[in-house]
Write a structure and sequence with these properties.
single chain; 8 helices
Length: 222
């Protein structure tokens, strides 16, 4: 099928979805305001401080920290014993390092969040703040870190681990994607990010992960 044809190990429909949605967010920025207003009752963002929001906000940090510490432990173990744990190959270790560092770490947090300057929903005038709303992908002088979502990027990086599954890969991919969606709802419900912030992070991570899989393992990911 035409739309399932792969380019850099990513189906054409994924590339087209990213391009089309990005254009919609830029040309019709009201989409972001309407999506954010769904979680705003006129006084506050309704999920902020709720058990659901707190759990998924904090869980990203816990999971990310666990993965990083586990990775460091495996590397140290290998350097000392010259043996890997659970027969994890050097290619897998390299892949994990790149999955965690390139998209969530470099592209999202170090480049986009630090330089785009987009104000968060909770900080803009429309939702009780004092900063100006700006569309996605447009550099801003508001001094914010809304675009793109670091939490969403970290959550969706779990899709990279799902690709390593030798059994029930689709199940694990579904779990990773579901977790990412829950994090998106939590961040939007707390006024932390716009819809475009989260969607963009998903595509950046998902596409990067599949490209890395192809480069390192020399085969299609799915």
């Amino acid at each position: 099928m035409f739309l399932t044809k792969r380019y850099l190990n990513v189906s054409l429909y994924i590339w087209l979805s990213f391009i089309i949605l990005s254009l919609l967010f830029v040309l019709f920025p009201q989409i972001d305001l309407d999506a954010a207003s769904f979680f705003y009752d006129g006084n506050r963002f309704t999920l902020k401080g709720t058990p659901f929001e707190v759990f998924f906000f904090q869980s990203v940090r816990v999971i990310t920290g666990f993965m990083i510490l586990s990775y460091i432990f495996i590397i140290i173990h290998y350097l000392i014993t010259k043996k890997t744990i659970f027969n994890i190959s050097k290619k897998v270790l390299l892949y994990i390092f790149l999955v965690l560092s390139i998209a969530p770490g470099l592209i999202v947090n170090s480049v986009l969040k630090e330089h785009m300057g987009r104000a968060r929903p909770i900080d803009i005038v429309q939702f009780g703040g004092n900063k100006e709303f700006t569309p996605a992908f447009i550099p801003s002088d508001q001094g914010g870190n809304s675009f793109t979502s670091g939490h969403a990027a970290a959550a969706f990086s779990l899709t990279g681990f799902a690709l390593l599954a030798t059994r029930k890969r689709q199940l694990w991919m579904g779990v990773a994607l579901s977790y990412g969606v829950a994090v998106i709802i939590a961040r939007m419900g707390a006024g932390g990010h716009f819809l475009s912030d989260n969607i963009t992070s998903f595509f950046i991570v998902f596409i990067s992960t599949h490209i890395l899989y192809k480069i390192i393992f020399k085969k299609e990911s799915l």
